[in-house]
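Format notes (please read before filing issues)

Several people have asked whether sequences and C-alpha cells are stored in separate files. They are not. Every record keeps both together, in the order shown below: the sequence lines, then the C-alpha cell lines. Line labels are part of the format and must not be stripped during preprocessing.
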Amino acid sequence: MEKTDDGIQTKFSAVTFLAIDFETTGYDFGSANEPWQLGYARVEDGAITETGEWFFDVEGAPERAHEADALGTLQSSFETWAPKLMGVRLVAHNIACERTILTRAAPLTKWGPWVDTMKLAKARYPGLPSYKLGDLCEMFGQVPMIDGRTWHDGLFDAVACANLALFLGE
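Then the structure lines:
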C-alpha cells in the first residue's frame, strides 16, 4: 500500500510507476562517480509492461558502456532518456542514489513523486536481517529471470525493484 499525495492508501497494482536503477563507476582512485547504465521497468495495472535500458559512455565504465549503441554522458543525452522518467511516479530501492544522480543531471527538473522500496519493506516487515534489494527479493520470491543478467545490472535491478514494489504493495 502506498499513500498518494492526498493521503489515500493505494495498492501498487492500481498505480502506474517506473522502477529505475542506475549503475555507476564508483569513486575508485579519486575519479568521479558517473552513471554508466540506467535500467527501467514500467508497471501498469499490476504488471510490468515495458523494460529498457540506456548505457552512457563514460570513463571508468565497463566495456559494455563503450559499445556503438551507448549514449554520451547522462547530461549530454538528456533528451533521449529523460522523457521516459518525467511525469511518472518513480520507484527505486534506497532512492538516495537515483534521486541524487537525476538532480545533479537536471537540477531544475521536478522528478517523481518518489517511492522507496527499502522504506516500504522496513515499514511492512520490521526487524528483517537485511533490507538489501537482492536479499529482500530472495526472501519474498521476487528475483527476476533475465537471461545473462544478475544483480548490479541496471535492467535486472529495476525489474527486481518493480517486482518487490508490487509484492510489498499487495
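For reference, the curators noted about this record: The first strand starts at residue 2 and ends at 3. Helices lie at 78-85, 96-105, 117-124, 133-140, 154-168.
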